[in-house]
Amino acid sequence: MKVEVKRSKRRKRTISAKLDGDVMHVSAPYNIPEKELKKVIKNFKKRFVRRNIKKKLNEEQNLSEVFGRLNKKYFNGKIKIKSIKYVTNQQKRYGSCNYKKKAIRISHHLAQMPDWVRDYVITHEMAHILEPNHSKAFWDIVYRYKLAERARGFLIAKGMEDNQELDIE
What we know:
Elements: E1 2-8, E2 16-20, E3 23-29, H1 34-60, H2 63-75, E4 83-87, E5 95-98, E6 103-107, H3 115-130, H4 136-142, H5 148-158
Helix pairs in contact: 2-3, 3-4, 3-5
């Protein structure tokens, strides 16, 4: 990603950036120290990369279709949600569910794992729509998914399954 910086004497404190193709245009105050500007540019780059990853994943992989298939197979089509999407700001969990808003968020890290692991996490989050906790009733629902134990083992090996206990927003 190419970076073009435009310094302005009229700009006093704020720094902004916009992406135009593969060029990031940065507008900054004239007198900002170079070290501080480089740090801000680095953060802008990270943000734009994450935004592009999220956009690309949500365009390429239709999670609504996956949700529909799993809903039909394991929940008899009874679960209704408003959204399911990939996000890039979940670093300590693979999925989260806001059962009040009926929204499921899936970490972009799952896109690099086998589909059956992604399907387990989606099933796990779908179960939270019915049981917004980790009770026995919740786990009975999750274990309808035939590869649940295998997927949990896979995620434990990746080091993040233990955090699933904290996945309700």
